[in-house]
Amino acid sequence: MSDIQAASGRYTTVAADHRTELDIKRSRFITVLRRTETEDEARGLIAELRREFHDARHHCSAFVLGPGREVQRSSDDGEPSGTAGIPMLEALTKRETFDGASDLSDITAVTVRYFGGILLGAGGLVRAYSESVSSALSSASLLRRRRMQLCAVPASHAAAGRLENDLRSGGYTVRGTEYGDGGAVITVALPDIPGAAGDFQDHLAALTAGDTSAELIATEWIDL
Asked: Helices 85-93 and 121-139 sit at what angle, rounded to 10 degrees?
């Protein structure tokens, strides 16, 4: 991810575990994608698939971690150097997602190969491992993550339902409403960009005739 993309406060990851299989010149290439946020989680998937496919010759892998894609690792796992892990990593880092952005992160790809008896050569291996990951990404469900400011908006029990509906209608992301003895608190997620909080305060004042205001409670990465 470029510095500009990292500063935008958003990136894309895989929504759920996904598995595909390709047969290339009688070799089986089984690719598994998983959302992972730490190196331990990434290496956990690799270990898990080594156990599941214990009789396979190779368990090649690549992972990209962090909102700014700070961590990038790959492994050829016995294939000729540079023919598996790097092509897999490039398939992840160069993949275009929403709006043409190349911003995949918090994702691990493992490709298990069962040798079919026909040598593919270095170029053939590069194409096979790259195609395996690209094919898996093409059919996987992806989601966008965004860095958001969470704001608490107090309201009376009587006004909370209408205010929540008005905020949703205004295009704001409402994370939920909690009702207590003293009233209700609506949690709203705002983009973590300059001016967003001020604009929201102005909108809130207009909706409530100045009866309430928002309090910033946290900044978090949220699945959209």
From this structure: 40
